[in-house]
Amino acid sequence: MTLTAWIAAALVALLSPTAFAEDQTMARRQQGILTGMPFMANLAQRTFVDDLGRKVFLAKPPTRVVSLAPSVTEMLFAIGAGEQVIAVTPFCDYPPEAAQKPKIGYTRPSLESLIALHPDLIVAPHEFIRSDLLSKLEEAKVPVFILDAKVIEDIASHLQTLGRMLGRTSDGDRVATALRQRLAELRARTEALSRPRLLYVLNSEPLITVGSGTFLSQLLELAGAANIGADASLPYPRLSMEQVLAKDPELILFPVGQAEGIPEHEQAQWRRWSTISAVRNGRLAHIEGDVINRPGPRIALGLERLIDVIHPNAEPAR
Amino acid sequence: MKAHAGVAAAPSEHAIPVPRGAVLTRARWATVLLGLSALAVVTLAASLLLGAVPIAPGRLLMILAELMRHGHGAVDAVGSDAAIVLYLRVPRVLTGFLVGASLGTVGAVLQALVRNPLADPYILGISSGAALGACVAVLFGVSVAGLGLSVLPLCAFAGALLSIFIVYRIAAAGGGGRLPVQTLLLAGVILNAIFSALIMFATSLMTPARSFGMLAWLMGTLTGPDLIGLLLLTAYVGVGVTVLFRQASALNVLSLGEEAARTLGVNVDRVKLILFITAALLTGAVVSVSGIIGFVGMAIPHIVRLLFGPDHRLLLPASALVGGSLLVIADGIARTALAPSEFPVGVVTALLGGPFFVYLLVTRKRGAMQVAA
User: Fold this and answer.
1) Which residue of A270, B12, B60, B78 has the smallest Cβ count within 10 Å?
2) Chain segment A17-71, per-residue pLDDT in tens
3) CATH architecture, range A21-186
4) Cβ–Cβ contact A264 with B under 8 A
5) Distance between CA atoms of A217 and A228, rounded to whole angstroms?
6) Could you name the CATH architecture of A192-310?
7) Binding-face residues of A in 180-239 toward B, CB within 8 A
8) What is the 3-state secondary structure (H, E, C) of B262-273?
9) Which CATH class is domain B25-363?
10) Are A240 and B212 in contact (CB < 8 Å)?
């Protein structure tokens, strides 16, 4: 019984941040519009509003930044603020120099080691920062800035916001503009193409896929696929296998990679569903999970790889 | 279930006074089990109609007829509906029945064996052993290339076996060759605690995506094995449940107390060993196939005891039939209520079983909570 109770608690803990994030979408969208205007931020007295609506005041650009997620680390390095980063998570493996930085925990960093680092800014994603940790850090007067990428555009505005916070406004704007431009180019490539029905296997046993309203689902749509999980009203539904057979996906996509991903033997299990078009036509494909799961600057690369997998016969990338 | 009927249906085998309720006659035994079997068949058939994709009864009959006539060929002729019936619903419904039947029987056996109404198939530390096995599989991405078998269940089964071994060694060491029931229970509880700690440690090392996947598997799914796996499971459960059924008379005697049983000529240690090992192996197999499904093993024997009395010759097979049927119904709810999504069947069994158990506690402070005495 204890074990069952513990499993239930752990599942709730894993799922709850996504649940209450929905309510805040509206408020954040409005703030996104405000913080997306560089001149306004310069006029404000270096006060920044994060994706939870919390105000973070930074008298001068921080020089001791701690990143609590791989996506955040990638963004910080992309805007050239790598020097200002003093610690990252064990999963921060890109760019290579990020892996050289001292490590701090991921979902359960030690509060003591965090404070002992004397950070002047901690940047964390909404999904993984625990509220008790956040309130302790607030008590200790450590500025924490929370990011919550709901749509792909959020990544570009995060890059700009981080740029302004870290005294790298022009770098942030430049990287964000390049990202927006690249995304627009990629979008144009898939607009006229047919949209194959796609099943994204987030977890194989039991099957869990991505539903509508998630970051990944948008990315799949942008890449010119019709996500068969989008009908389910949950963000990460345990899709019924019956539904999969009835929807008959033309492509089954498995994320693979170091930290996450579907192992080979679980992929092989899918070959037994011989009525599925994707299986009959040998269209079981994989994609490096890191480039599409992380809401960071490599998302354009992720989208490009997705398009290559989904539309292998379309004109190649320029 | 026919093979052992002769053994279990011999009420006069031991001249033991039946403790409570009506004396079990051969006619009542047969009537109850026939009735429950009919109920089980109806439940299984009706559950074939349930699913995320609606298939009308007429079409289902047509598909079943095609499958009878052409086997796998029907899938090509009829298309995805036939694949849904043959590869998804039939295995799933049968898996649900086998799992429920095993949990029900093992629950009834353990409640009598440890003389504790709260005993369930997981109390011997088997669930946490299986969970730890699954955890290790996920953490290290264990892979057995070429076997074509799903690795997660295998690791879970190995974990269950490990915990059975440890619990048994602890209990045997403490009892000087015997298996003291209290030590067995305590060893199970303590092993649960240790393994749960190890599981928490292992999940804290995983990325959220991986621990999420593992927990989702543990929460209980009946998506089920492929056809070969299903045949293996059927054979395994068939043998295990039969072994347990054959000890029904001995269990009746054992529920009078160990000393009484010894005086009446039952080889208590041997019976306990057989029951313990079989129950543990059965639970290990079931957990490895379905994850952890709570309350079936605990609540079913109580329901059956209320309805049909405490005689184990009837209690064990009836618990199997009722447990199987109820789990199939619970799974029917789990896979249709949120369609096209599903949720863990353990949620349904706990939500149905929990309040029922509270009801038992409140209304029957003495009678029903005592086990077979």
Assistant:
1) B12
2) 444 444 444 454 445 445 555 445 444 568 899 999 999 998 889 999 999 999 9
3) 3-Layer(aba) Sandwich (3.40)
4) yes
5) 10
6) 3-Layer(aba) Sandwich (3.40)
7) 202-208, 211, 231-234, 237-239
8) HHCCCCHHHHHH
9) mainly alpha
10) no
